[in-house]
């Protein structure tokens, strides 16, 4: 029997895996554990339900009205967090200001039952303290004279350790909002200003708005705006545009090379991807809402979002399916069988050995990634920030977060490796040259991640992507997909382990060992089926 992966192939990579595992522990895990252990609150956030109850009690006490609906999301001052990261001021800020002016917080959006009122309350994620709010209760809100407003605001701001001079510096603006014309606090070149508003609700004067937020200097804001525009352009043309082109080409080549493949291929994996992708997107609806700011979405918005999610999921599934069919035809026409199927001789052993190699490759990449980021920080000044659209706290079910890892692994390996490299190898007649363009397209799909300069992830993922390409061309689609899934799963599992809850920890462990389970099941299943055909030994 010919084998695609030799019995002892894993021995080539063990030493590298051990070394890079040590690097990963040193550069990634140890700083994470150190930060958690030194954190004032042990890195443990309050429950979202607790944040909601705190907000509801506050609003009902202030307004006298009943809260009918409340929703908690994670919000962050993305721009300022990035500034602190760039200027190496994060630790200093946390010590001086985080207790009262956190950059990451739970935002509780609410609606009132008795009026058309709504608003938000910001809650410290770790202490549970209220750190800001804004609400409107409808026509019952009335403006009161300036002196009474100032007295109410002064009494409220005193709770947040503002000095009397800082409070007295507030000026009333034409629209009824009080603001500090000069910064009340500074760190680096960033400054914090206060905004507040007081109005009469019923028979009492209530502070209906209080916010205090640091703003980075104009030159930093302008730079980030330009980088975001560049990232959007690169993603729109290089990733989305080229993905559409690859989809069209896949349809064409699936028809042209239909005699080398079957339109049954990939149907099961595509169905799995479709379910996984829908689950992933539904689980991230809170993240979509967080990126839009305040407000509780109406039923109409929810239905519209779900419809768009379903349409997008079907389009992505179609791309995965046709890429698998076309890629299979292209590779077989070139004399390669990069994705053997159940029933072929040696299939079970191939999947089992693929799984073993995948863990070694994933460990190597996990150790390599922080080295790349470290070099990019030294060479181009890379820094990062927080993006609430990707926040684990904005997952409806955090334990489902690893589903994201598998959705990306299936789709990206199918589109950019299985078909992408296949078609360019058909054109260029060289595997390395064929890997460059699809790796570039894939890397450009990640430049909108919260890293600056915008080209940071382009450089990083060109290296990682070419390694994925080597794994794919040398050891096949299943090995590359398993490697990608394990690599991504480890990256997202830290959030699950940090929560300390049983469901999240069990989920993290399950998804980390899922490739072993899949490979073992397929290996046993293969033993029960007669070998349909030998697998050609054509890996070079």
Overview of this structure, please?
There is one protein chain. The protein is an alpha+beta fold and 540 residues long. Helices cover 59% and strands 13% of the residues. It contains 16 helices and 12 strands. It has helices spanning 14-38, 48-63, 78-86, 90-96, 146-157, 164-168, 218-256, 267-283, 285-292, 299-333, 347-380, 403-428, 431-444, 456-475, 477-499, 502-527; strands at residues 67-76, 104-112, 118-124, 130-136, 141-142, 171-172, 178-179, 185-187, 190-201, 204-215, 383-384, 451-452. Strands 1, 2, 3, 4, 5, 6, 7, 8, 9 and 10 form a 10-stranded antiparallel β-sheet that branches. A two-stranded antiparallel sheet has the order 11-12. A hairpin with a 2-residue loop joins strand 8 and strand 9. Helix 1 (14-38) crosses helix 11, helix 12 (403-428) runs antiparallel to helix 15 and helix 14 packs across helix 15. The longest helix has 39 residues, at 218-256. It is elongated, with a radius of gyration of 27 Å. The mean pLDDT is 90.
Termini Cα gap: 18 Å
Overall number of strands: 12
Task: Bin the strand percentage.
Answer: 5-15%
Main sheet record: 10 strands, antiparallel
Number of helices: 16
Any low-confidence stretches, pLDDT <50, length ≥5? none
- Let me know the average pLDDT: 90
Helix share bin: 55-70%
Secondary-structure-based class equals: alpha+beta
